[in-house]
Amino acid sequence: MDEELYRQNILEHYKEPHNKRIILDATMEGKGKNANCGDLITFYLKVDGDVVTDVSFVGVGCAVSQAAASMLTDKVKGKTINELKAIAPGDVYNMLGVQISPGRVDCALLGYKAMSQALLGSQAANL
Amino acid sequence: MFDVKKIKKDFPIFENYKRETGRDLVFLDSAASSQTPKVVVDAMDDYYFKYRSNIHRSAYNIGEQATNSYEDARKTAAEFINADTNEIIFTNGATDSSNMLIYALEKKIEWKEGDEVVTTILEHHSNLLPLQEMAKRNGVKFRHFEMAPDFNIDYGNLDGLINEKTRIVSMTLASNVTGAITDVKRVSEAAHKRGAIVIVDATKAAGHMLVDVKSLDCDFLFFSGHKICGPTGIGILYGKYDILNKMPTSSFGGGTVEDVTMEEAKYSDAPFRFEAGTPNIAGVIGLGAAIKYLEAVGVENARKHTQDLVAYAIKKLSTISGVKIICERDHLKNIGIVSFVVDGVHPHDVGEILNRHHVAVRGGHHCAIPLMKALGVSAISRASFYIYNEESDIDALAEGIEEAIKIFS
Fold first, then answer.
1. B229 among known catalytic residues
2. Scanning every residue of chain B, which has its alpha carbon at the shortest distance from the alpha carbon of A66?
């Protein structure tokens, strides 16, 4: 069978997600929930000055949501907050490297939603 | 004899799907919404193309024909659940029925401090949330039956839960997740002894088993048309006439009154008081046609058929290692649902891979989040069966699940 969605890299991230743990002294924390299935991801960022020194996520979800969150943690480590804010949904699709059907958009962006929530929280704190 | 191949031909979607895709549609999601037989759409077409007009007001022939068809459907629906014709209110669906009913009861009941309402952990949000919100608004204690190991409700605490303070008991007749058929009679007997009102959500059960409001001894019952081969956007609210006719309505407008002055209105008797505005006439006529279709097939035949499919599915899925079946395992007590989880494969992924086999199942929380929490899962896969399903559908399901396990191993 022509395997598009469940490519090896997605399955690898799903089975052995990167940075899947809680950061107890996180600077920022955000949640993303998929109302459709009840899946929930919490995203943690630890920031030194303006730079992300540590990042992680926890939660349950499908292969797409878990792999996307895992890839996202790899991408943002070492970046500045402004660089994180510049990340767009399209970047997440590119990381996954597969066609995301409309029905799976919420899955693909669950970690991204949680990260955006964390960043919003930080903005509020700065006000 | 129950001839699935023949029944399948009544539902054009199967032939159309095959023509479009070259594959058979394996539709195992009737618990979400059933398919539509051609006779239902034909009946609605007839209304739209042969005698379309408003009801209850027109002196001309087609207007009368529309009124007659509409009221015939009410009679058909009443007979379907062994009720009287004037005990049937047409609504937009089960959710609308539930909200309308709870609003009316909230106004009707004189709430006292310490009053309680009781429901069950199995409920769909459409039955749960209107009651939960009403209880919060009135400071009423909200209690529920927990789940038993067989995925039915635990009746052990029946007398503790239902007592002199209980005003409403609202429960599903069958779970849309575990397929368990509840013992409404047992609960309604206890509730009526204490003077409580009994509401039954028959959305999953109607059209899948005989539903008799008198033998269930319920005060209210509701269901949707779209799960019993009818159109979407139409449903039924049944109420015992004595209570129904004393209840206030929540929606006001044309067709609901006997007299109006600029100061006040005198409202008509039930059911007309509850059907404000021009209703979903085609939907009602379609629902009537759906019920007639199901009666021709035979609800008891449908029941036996889905029982057999449940037994076959449980047997088949039990042979796949890594699949955990979460449903009422006694097919005689199961409404036609086999839910399951696959080790290491999320229900979304199960659904996606099954879709490649042209197998349609639902994966998610099934609008029963408290039940998901009780089951200790965030989501679950559900295969549900109806009159057009056959054993080969379950074989296709099993094949797809095995494929999912292979991809994720």
1. no
2. B346
